[in-house]
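Hey L., structure's done. Input below.
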Amino acid sequence: MQIPLHSPAQKIFLLSLSLVLAAAYIGLVSAQGAAAYFSEKPEFASLQRAARLQPGNADYHYRVGRYFLIVQRSPEPAVAAYRAAIALNPYAARYWFDLAAAYALLGDTNQQKDALEHAIAADPRTPEVAWEAANLYLVQGDTDRALKEFRVVLENDPSLPSAALSLCWRTRPDVEALLRDVVPPRPDVYAAFLNLLMAKKETASAAKVWAQLVELHLPMERYQVFDYIRYLIGQRDADQARLVWQQAAGLSALSAYQPSPTNLVVNGDFSLDVLNGGFDWLYAKTPDVSLALDPTRSHAGHRSLEIDFNTAKIEDAGIRQLIPVQPNTSYDFSAYFRAEDIEGAGGPRFAIQDLFNATLYFASEELKDADFWKQVSGTFTTGPEAKLLVVRVQRVPAGSPIKGKLWIDGVRLVEGSHD
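Output:
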């Protein structure tokens, strides 16, 4: 587009107008640049200068307010600066939060609550916003609102469940209320809640969390199941431990590791990977005894457990399994073994004991002098308080030197009424 200029006056006018506009633009850009420059400086005078150069920039007013609030601890001018920022941008939750903090210093509870509600309305789903809101509500004694915001945190931030749940429990130690109103149906949150209750020895409450987790069919990592079962056994709650293992079959892909009426020993033929947790085989690594699954030797399946002894002092081979049982009940045990070059006084043997009171129910013959698969077996009856047995490979006599190799396979335990 061309503008015809027919006289010198028109040309001078247009040139003057262009210069004025250019000067205005340069001034505007310069002011913006200067304001940005001053806003990055920590000095109060620089922050004020930035706000004066760019009065329409909400963030510059906000930074002035923060200086008043945090550095000078002057809530009244901070409120004025925050209000100026909010007038320009009412949708920034951070502005409202800091305004609420300024009102808190002034002791103005009503204005603090109003600012807090505006902050949540401006950003209702961000966990950082909800976290700060929840903590401010706690300070105010508004527990219900605090718990509501903690739920937002738990729903949206995988890094904060432990801290949030700890505050929730301290505020309202009611597991049923927290499960109903605060804890979202997320596996990581339920696991964190379970860990919190175990740390506090809240066994009954932990059982309610687990029951709700099962009802919701939430998947759980195996190690989390192992931790819970280890805790329950430490509390001598064998019945709950057995129930957890059974229910974890579908939640943690443990269906292949369940006992059956034909064999209460899990993975007795070592055909599955050894989990070292729960009610599968448990092992302890030591420099003196090597444990390995051997696919070249087996009694009936595909592999056996090889135990290589080379030590001057052990109490057992470091392999064991916990087996839930019934009191006053007869059981039949059997297993197969092979041995090679076992040296030392006596030898290893299978031992079955009560985990809690160490009552020895069964001890096999010594597992030695067999270059073929040889069976050991026996029958025993549990005592009136028996709930959990441990099957292990015991060194007899304990603490004496032993060398050589032992393979075990086909470990089996059934109630005496079964064939």
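The first strand starts at residue 282 and ends at 283. The beta strands are 282-283, 289-294, 304-311, 316-324, 330-343, 347-354, 360-363, 374-381, 388-396, 402-415.

-- N.
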